[in-house]
Amino acid sequence: MSEARELEQLRQQIDSLDQQIQSLINQRARCAQQVAEVKHKYAQPGEPVVFYRPEREAQVLRNVMARNEGPLPNEGMARLFREIMSQCLALEEPLQVAYLGPEGTFTQQAAVKHFGHAVTCRSQISIADVFREVESGAAHYGVVPVENSTEGVVTHTHDSFFDSSLKICGEVALRIHHNLLVTTPDQKVERIYSHAQSLGQCRRWLDQHYPGIERIAVSSNAEAARRASKEEGSAAIASEAAAELYQLHTQAANIEDRPDNTTRFLIIGRQPTTPSGDDKTSVLIASRNQPGALYQVLEPFHKAGISLTRIETRPARSGTWSYVFFIDFEGHRDDASIAPVMEELRNIAVDFRWLGSYPKAVM
């Protein structure tokens, strides 16, 4: 058999499989439309109909990865299904998602990774603006950064929870790759723009390759790319998406100091999320200003054998040298092992707030 004949047979097989896949995707889409009809049918008068269920989507993606037999990697297969789910959800209700902008930021990439491309992403100037958009109902959900594996916590996100009733309903972990962007390949670099955290994440690389060059912190990496595209002698540290958006050339790729550089983002919304089977819970605790305060906060978790995944301290709004603790731990508040701990924390804290229980990042 000739090469041409073998290739023709394989292409015919691919065409046949494509037809079957397309038919099944449309069957799934029709099921999604029927789900919307059922939800409307049984909706209580005056109550909003909730179409997007983070816990259900997390369960579907976990199942996709668990049954995957290759050769596609688990994460690649999950991303394909994420887009199918995104398109199907859009048939039920097109989602409006607010994110920390401008266009081309890593937060926008996190929004697309979590929700897929079938949502409408709306850029916001600040983290506070993302919270306001969701609180007002102008957006269904918001996406905000909360911590980076190299540079640590994003304090503006934590502080926004002090005055907000919004709940955390999901998380996204995004590997962050930074690139040095210029207008032309042979451009002489006189100054480098980027977000302060990105400059910190590339500090050693910059010290080695561009010692003495001015580093200017701006509001976002996308803003850095915009400035670099307009100013002669300017470069930016930003993403591939920003390079494409502002038509910049990548002079050096993956310049972050740590190859595992990752940023965690939170999905915020107005409705609580039910258990998915593999969840996290976030709480805010204001303790009494007394010796052993931190021990009192942590002891209930130790006694119950609950694993803490993160603990951060922020100054309280009232009282000099008073602090609040932001704590993430494994489990959902509706789990039998978690509920008693939550009650004990309420009893020992000056102020206790449940910020949300949500599925762990799937991919």
From TrEMBL:
Organism domain of life: Bacteria
Instruction: Please list the coiled coil stretches.
Output: none
Q: Which reaction does it catalyse?
A: prephenate + H(+) = 3-phenylpyruvate + CO2 + H2O; chorismate = prephenate
Pathway per the UniProt entry = Amino-acid biosynthesis; L-phenylalanine biosynthesis; phenylpyruvate from prephenate: step 1/1; Metabolic intermediate biosynthesis; prephenate biosynthesis; prephenate from chorismate: step 1/1
Keywords for this entry? Amino-acid biosynthesis, Aromatic amino acid biosynthesis, Cytoplasm, Isomerase, Lyase, Multifunctional enzyme, Phenylalanine biosynthesis
Q: Which GO BP terms apply?
A: chorismate metabolic process; L-phenylalanine biosynthetic process
What's a Gene Ontology MF term here?
Answer: prephenate dehydratase activity
Q: What is its EC number?
A: 4.2.1.51, 5.4.99.5
**Pfam families from the UniProt entry:** ACT, CM_2, PDT
Q: Where in the cell is it found?
A: Cytoplasm
Q: Could you tell me which Gene3D superfamilies the record lists for this protein?
A: 3.30.70.260, Chorismate mutase (1.20.59.10), Periplasmic binding protein-like II (3.40.190.10)
Decide whether keyword Transport is in the record.
no
Where does it primarily localize?
Answer: cytoplasm
Example of a GO cellular component annotation carried by this entry: cytoplasm
What's the stated role of this polypeptide? Catalyzes the Claisen rearrangement of chorismate to prephenate and the decarboxylation/dehydration of prephenate to phenylpyruvate.
Q: What is this protein called?
A: Bifunctional chorismate mutase/prephenate dehydratase
